[in-house]
Write a structure and sequence with these properties.
By secondary structure, this protein is mostly helical. It has four helices and no strands. This is DUF3243 domain-containing protein.
């Protein structure tokens, strides 16, 4: 089972990676830029595995680059307080 198959597992995975990056000293601007790049990659290369990912993919596909940055930033905020390691 892929981490992408389950929305809660996906959020937990992202949160753990976010906390790791923060603990390694990565600043918020860099994290947000990486989230945008990952969002672009996922939108182009990975088939959505659940309803939430399908909604995000649909939103990403019609968003301007500025709006895509906003979506990526919101995903970072969504997972900031999730995960097992803070």
């Amino acid at each position: 089972m892929s981490v992408l198959d389950n929305w809660e597992q996906w959020k937990d995975f992202l949160a753990n990676r976010l906390h790791h990056a923060e603990n390694q000293g990565m600043d918020q601007s860099t994290i947000n830029d990486l989230a945008y790049q990952i969002g672009g990659y996922l939108a182009k290369q990975v088939e959505p595995q659940n309803e939430q990912e399908k909604v995000l993919a649909d939103l990403w596909s019609v968003a301007s680059p500025e709006e895509q940055h906003a979506i990526a930033n919101m995903m970072v905020k969504l997972v900031e307080n999730n995960g097992t390691s803070s």
